[in-house]
Every structure is written in structure tokens, then in C-alpha cells.
Amino acid sequence: MKFAWIMVEGTNWDRKKEAITTALESGIDHIVDFTDVEKIQKLGNVTIISDVEGADVVMVGRNGEGDGTLIIPDDLSQSKDLAAITSFKRKGKKVAAYVEITSKKHEELASYLGRTADYLILLGKDWTVIPLENIIADLQKEDVKLIAAVSDYDEAKVALETLEYGTDGVLLCPRDTSQIRKVSELIERIDSERYQMKPATVTRVEAVGSGDRVCVDTCSMMSPGEGMLIGSYSRGMFLVHSESLESEYVASRPFRVNAGPVHAYVMTPGNRTRYLSEIETGDEVLTVDKEGNTKTTVVGRVKIEKRPLMLIEAEYEGVVLRTILQNAETIRLVGEDGKPISVADLKKGDKVMVYLDESARHFGMAIDETIIEK
């Protein structure tokens, strides 16, 4: 997952407060600061990155070899910044190494420190040139998060996409607050997953008695065409529509998906599945639209109630999928035309959108294994 940290330069507290508040509203809660830590902590639940030992993440290098002004030793094992990082790590602290890339020697220092630090913050004059590529390639197998210091959306896009893989994150030093929201939206787009949806033909629809059904209420509003991937089989899941449509029986609940019984799978971030019975407040699930575009959504509440159920079976190119949903007019799948279709109106021959997965699942993770589900 890509991420952003923010640092507001200067000492103007009103400007800093405005930027940090905007960052928090945009989902950015890691703040780099060296002068107003106590004030910042009062603005919300934040993670502080600073050069004092009491910080959540200690920064090393800003006033040392990494700041581009002091001489770097020829033998990098004698680096004062490395010694500081090692000392803090021994105390159980998370450490961010800061390196301003002004020469080839600083590039070498960055790669060297990146083998010990938890985070490596890189400051360069122009990330369209080679140093960032070199450092990403050199540290790709190391357990360090690479962060490029950027000032706006364009620089962030270059850093996050360099060498296709890009840096893990960016340290945004914004010229104005509009850049904060733009960078946050950029990261959301980069991290969003996409699932290739297929039109499966309905082959069976029948009532199967009653059972414990799960409603998933999220902290986000869903639009018509959006829902969640739900199914009884891990090899394929149905796009179950949100309750975002008005009905003559109930008002719309655009934050809700009436998902199915407790045993069913729901797709979560990282192409992982979980049982609906496991989902609870604060968990993350994926909401999916008819094109297969996704958003990560926080669960606000789960309701489990006994309700009448309906078995739905569909087939796509020889692959048979089944799921069980509540037998009610307000429960809908998504048709081939992208429009919601109520399970009360569903019949053999209808086309509904499904996602097929070639992998088996072990504790929710996709694996290469043969598995039989029926």
C-alpha cells in the first residue's frame, strides 16, 4: 500500500495547522515536524516523525551527513548517521533516515542506510533523473520503506510510479493545501484494485429455508452500480448490489450491502477473502462497481439476523457458482447491462455479473492449489 506523510515548512502556526487539518481530513496522519510537536498532537490521533527520541518515528540525518552539507566518510560503516540509527533501533525505536541527494556519494549513503533504517526519506532536486531509480533498484529486496520528498502532485506521481514499482510513499511539503487532497486521491487511485467481471447465466433460483443473514453497513456511501463481491465459493463471487436504490417498502440505505449468510465469503483488500461472520466494526472490505473498479471501505456495523434465504446458481464457460442471499425484493445482483436486478425477479437465463478466480484459497489468501467446492 502506498502512503503519504506531510511536512509543513516554516514557523507560521496558522498555515501549518490548516495544512495538517486538511491532511487529517484526507486520511494522512503521519506528520514530520521539529518545532510544534505538542500542538500538532492536539489536532488529532497522529504519528509524529521528528528528530527527538520521544517521537513515534525518530528521524536521523537531517542535521547530519544526510543533510547534504557534512562530509561523508569513505568507509560508510563509520557513518555517524548509521551509528545513530543503530542506537535507536537497539532501543526498540522506529527510525527514518533522511538523505538529501546532492552527489553520487549521497546516493551511496542512502542505499547503505536503507539496509538498517525502517524508512528512508530521499530529497532530490529532480526525481525525473536517475538517482531515485538506482536507489529503488538497489533496495528492492531490503525491509525498508522508501519515501521521496515532493512538493506537489506531479512530483508525487513521478516518485510513486518510477521503475513501475515506485517508492513506497511520499513526504509532501505542499506549497498550498490543494496539493494535499490531490496527492491523497492519487494514492487512492494507485492502490485501488480492479476485478474483471464476467456475465454468468443464471441456472437455478430456489428458496432454501431460513438462516443467519449478514448486513454489512459501511462508513461510505455507495452509488447505484456498486456493491460487494460475495459468494459461497472462493473460485467465484457474485456482485451483490448495495441498498442504494429507493423502494416502495423501505428507504434507501446507500451505506449497506445485504450480503448473505454467515458462511459466505466477502472480498477484502489485497485480493483476500473473509467469512461474513468474521467481519466487524473497523474492518476493511472492498466495494466494487459494475466495471470491477474497487474502493477500500471501513465497516461501521454488522447486523446478523435470521431471515428466509434463496439459493442462486449461475454458470460461465463451464464454471458453476452458487451463493445464498436473503429472499427479499430489496436484495439485488447486477445484470449484464450494469443495472441492478432483484432476486425476487431473477429467473433462469438471466445474466448477472460475477468475478472468477483461478486460485484456491487458504485462510483467505489466493494460492495455487486444487480445491473442490460444491
From TrEMBL:
Residues 200-374 form the 3-dehydroquinate synthase C-terminal domain. Pfam families: DHQS, DHQS_2nd. The keyword Oxidoreductase applies. Keywords: Amino-acid biosynthesis, Aromatic amino acid biosynthesis, NAD, Oxidoreductase. The keyword Iron does not apply. Residues 1-186 form the 3-dehydroquinate synthase N-terminal domain. InterPro entries: DHQS (IPR002812), DHQS/DOIS_N (IPR030960), DHQS_C (IPR056179). It catalyses: 2-amino-2,3,7-trideoxy-D-lyxo-hept-6-ulosonate + NAD(+) + H2O = 3-dehydroquinate + NH4(+) + NADH + H(+). Signal peptide: none annotated. One of its GO terms (biological process) is aromatic amino acid family biosynthetic process. One of its GO terms (molecular function) is NAD binding. It is an enzyme of class 1 (oxidoreductase). Its EC number is 1.4.1.24. Belongs to the archaeal-type DHQ synthase family. Catalyzes the oxidative deamination and cyclization of 2-amino-3,7-dideoxy-D-threo-hept-6-ulosonic acid (ADH) to yield 3-dehydroquinate (DHQ), which is fed into the canonical shikimic pathway of aromatic amino acid biosynthesis. This is 3-dehydroquinate synthase. It comes from Methanobacterium congolense.
